[in-house]
UniProtKB/TrEMBL annotation:
Residues 7-244 form the ARM repeat N-terminal plant domain. Gene3D superfamilies: Leucine-rich Repeat Variant (1.25.10.10), Tetratricopeptide repeat domain (1.25.40.10). Residues 555-629 are annotated as: Disordered. This is ARM repeat N-terminal plant domain-containing protein. It comes from the Eukaryota. Residues 567-577 have a biased composition (Acidic residues). Residues 597-618 have a biased composition (Basic and acidic residues). The lineage of its organism: Eukaryota, Viridiplantae, Streptophyta, Embryophyta, Tracheophyta.
Length: 629
């Protein structure tokens, strides 16, 4: 007979079994427990399952339970919940399918041999049923997580792929997940299922925490669906099913939000697709997708390099180059000053080489680049040629060029202060033509100042281009506060909320670390103008925004019938699949560290004493980068 604690009323209690001191008896008892649990109907079954869930999360690489049949047990429990609604609605059994699928996912996320055991135990079919939406979105989330882990390994991917519906279900779920969670949970506060609320907050939160966590889980549901699709995208035979225009167009917008910023989400999948020739054709032909890739390529987030890779691969492919070159070149020219980005060494040189090859390979006729594209590439190549010439130029000549550029820049500052914004922009352009290419710090200032002029002249595209140039030249990369702020405003003018939000947040982060009195946060307070923009863009880039527009705002009291009904009512079991949701450098020159010529006493006195100018349209503070990068 199993050893039972004197205070425990349950024979064969799992927690008592775990206290068994004899290892062989303990293993035998655990094996028996896993075999018998699915056939039992006793109360309190959720307690050992939740204990197993905690163990799986804490020790996912421990093989003990794998060897004793935990996967078979969890698969059987999911089937039981799917087939026996009476059992599922009894006691707290409603939690069990969720915990069972989560346990499978935890034990398969690191170890391929565990994944092989799971497949052998038959976990895929019940997980597919959860993925279909046979229960609710909460179970879909853990099912797609588990299937994504199984699809990661070469030995188990074929088993996942043999279930042909998994890919299509994942695609539909990636597109509709935010809408599902919004309309089935977030929107109607009084109709939220209690077990959903408990799982989201672990019983420690109110309505606000429930809402916040549901947004995070919705993002995970979407991002884990994309991760599963990504496993299929590595196989060319699945690309035709993935590369549908309706889906590809939406991928740049699937970004995980601020609640799930560690996921590459849609851009990660696009990079996998563009890595193969079969994927590049549909991407190049998809309306609006190249523009979206350009916006991500210019961004300052962790996934910038992925968009740059996509654009470079599309340009290197003769079958897609002519389709994308006119749209991709402006962004890549802006980024050509990048030296290192993550693991990408000499990225700027790679960009220049690819663009030069494009010019050489593109002939004349209907498919040739536009004259403006040719001009931009020629200007970039000339700039690189200037850099080579400057390496052989006497230092005295370089200093003369620097001094001349400084004089012209100061003229621009004077024009700006007097309100002649167009004249100031022209002077900054003239100064850039004079300034040595290797004088990166000085060029950062010039580009950023000219970006400010473009903002005031209501030229957001030009402002984005110049601000991006400044950010790419700056050391560290993408961390020049004033350029971040200017680009954030320019993105706002274009209605690009996500891009504006990310730059505004980075601007605030840089201000918190800055020694510049014009930028540093006073008393740790975020400037009002930055706070206003962040709040505005957080509303505009809210994950549930589209769903809220379609289904309406949040209600605390429903008046049109329960979405799920009372928990004892059959209407609680409306499934996700039955819902009405449609699928509708530093400088290379050693002497360049001494930039005293740009910071002389006269120049220090030239800082503006008057209040900053205002952008009348947007109401945000605007001022020049002055003389320091």
């Amino acid at each position: 007979m199993d050893k039972v604690s004197p205070d425990c009323p349950y024979p064969g209690c799992f927690f008592c079994v775990m206290k068994e001191g004899n290892p062989s008896k303990r293993r035998a008892s655990i094996l028996k427990f896993f075999r018998e649990l699915p056939s039992q109907d006793d109360d309190g079954q959720v307690l050992p399952i939740s204990g197993l869930w905690n163990t799986a999360m804490a020790h996912p690489n421990d093989p003990e339970f794998i060897e004793l049949g935990i996967f078979e047990c969890m698969a059987a429990l999911i089937w039981k919940g799917l087939k026996n609604r009476r059992w599922l609605s009894h006691d707290q059994n409603i939690y069990i399918p969720y915990y069972a699928a989560h346990i499978i996912g935890s034990y398969t996320m690191n170890m391929e041999e565990f994944a092989e055991s799971a497949v052998h135990a038959g976990v895929i079919p019940p997980l597919v049923e959860l993925l279909r939406g046979r229960l609710t979105w909460v179970e879909q989330r853990v099912a797609v997580r588990a299937l994504g882990h199984l699809a990661t390994y070469p030995s188990t991917f074929p088993n996942v792929a043999n279930h042909g519906e998994i890919l299509e279900l994942s695609i539909q779920l990636a597109m509709s997940s935010l809408e599902i969670v919004y309309s089935h949970f977030y929107q109607y506060v009084d109709r939220r299922l209690s077990y959903h609320c408990d799982l989201l907050t672990r019983g420690m939160g109110g309505v606000e925490m429930e809402s916040r966590k549901s947004e995070e889980w919705a993002s995970q549901l979407q991002c884990w669906s994309l991760q599963l699709i990504n496993c299929f995208a590595f196989k060319p035979e699945f690309l035709p099913a993935i590369c549908k225009s309706e889906f590809l167009t939406k991928l740049p917008g699937m970004w995980g939000g601020l609640v799930n910023e560690n996921s590459p989400a849609g851009i990660g999948l696009l990079r996998t697709i563009c890595h193969h020739k079969l994927g590049r054709g549909p991407v190049a032909s998809c309306p609006g997708l190249i523009e979206a890739l350009c916006n991500i390529a210019r961004s300052s987030d962790d996934w910038q390099y992925m968009a740059i890779d996509c654009l470079l691969w599309l340009l290197q492919d003769p079958s897609t180059c002519h389709k994308v070159i006119d749209k991709a070149v402006p962004a890549l020219v802006d980024l050509a000053e990048i030296t290192t980005l993550g693991d990408h060494k000499k990225l700027g040189d790679t960009i220049v080489n690819v663009l030069q090859e494009c010019m050489q390979s593109q002939g004349t006729g209907r498919n040739s680049p536009s004259s403006r594209t040719k001009e931009q590439i020629e200007e970039l190549l000339n700039s690189k040629q200037r850099l080579k010439w400057e390496k052989n130029m006497p230092k005295e000549d370089l200093h003369i060029k620097q001094a001349a550029a400084l004089v012209v820049k100061l003229e621009g500052n004077s024009l700006f202060s007097s309100g002649n914004i167009s004249g100031a922009a022209s002077k900054y352009s003239e100064a850039l033509a004079l300034c040595p290419v290797r004088s990166k710090k000085e060029r950062v200032v010039l580009y950023s100042n000219r970006a400010q002029c473009h903002l005031l002249l209501q030229q957001p595209l030009a402002a984005i281009s110049d601000a991006t140039h400044a950010l790419c030249l700056h050391n560290p990369l993408n961390r020049h506060a004033k350029s971040l702020w200017r680009r954030a405003q320019a993105y706002d003018m274009l209605g690009l909320a996500k891009e504006s939000l990310l730059d505004a947040i980075l601007f605030i982060n840089e201000c918190s670390q800055s020694n510049d009195p014009d930028l540093s946060l006073r008393q740790n307070k975020v400037p009002d103008y930055a706070e206003r923009l962040v709040k505005k863009q957080m509303r505009a880039a809210w994950l549930f925004r589209e769903a809220a527009i379609k289904h309406g705002g949040v209600h605390c009291e429903g008046d049109a019938g329960d979405m799920y009904g009372q928990e004892t009512d059959d209407s609680e079991w409306e499934t996700a699949s039955e819902s009405d949701i449609g699928n509708d450098g530093r400088d290379e020159m050693g002497d360049e560290d001494d930039d005293s010529e740009w910071k002389n006493e006269d120049e220090r006195k030239d800082k503006y004493d008057k209040p900053p100018m205002k952008d009348i349209k947007h109401g945000y503070n605007v001022q020049l980068a002055e003389d320091e990068p």
